[in-house]
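Session log. Operator J.P. requested a structure for one protein chain; no other inputs attached. Running the standard single-chain path with token output.
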Amino acid sequence: MHYTLKDRGYFDALKVFTDEFERQGAKYALVGGAGIQARVSDILCRALKTGISSTTGLEHLLRETKDFDITTNSPEAFFVTYFNEMQALHPHVSIQSESVRSKRMKLKGKEDTSVFFNYQTGPQDLSGLDEDFYNECIETAQPINLRYNGSNLCVFVATPECLITSKLTRNDPKDIWDIATLMRVMKAHKQHSGKLRDSKIKRYLERANKGEMFGRFQEIKKQILKE
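Structure written below.
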């Protein structure tokens, strides 16, 4: 199954993850497609002064995904405790190993939800981006508060610059779609999103010897400015 934050089960699954990170006091950043979803949802919900469930049009901006991607500097041993205690505190949650640094979480409810939880523990998991970028991604992650009816969660999400840089290095069609969507929403609601710092993206890419990808970013930006 693939989900967006408009799906209550996916929202609740993210809340379980983030609440446990907060309880454990661990630093992390939500990245990938879920990171884009969180950023887009936050900007639009604040602009319209609504929660996720009642934000009209949000469903057309969120690309469905089946997982959460987390960047963290916590060691592998941390996650043994993390997942064990998560299951102990939440009887409706079960965790199964899928592969190295990937777990499947099943959340029982009115409709069962099954999502993958992928966690990175170092820059070796990224597409050529260096350790400085990796650490900055975590250190500069910003808390975002999301609301779904009566439920609230706080999740630390990578900056738009980090999200875009990471997706540019992958250059998959879905990643380009995510970049364009985030940039469109930021352009439409500047007062709620802040200014995108192009120079940071360029610096990140050049440091990873992928400066040519900045041209792809400029193409996307030019197209959005025309719209």
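Operator note: Residues 8-159 form a domain with the Beta Polymerase; domain 2 fold (CATH 3.30.460).
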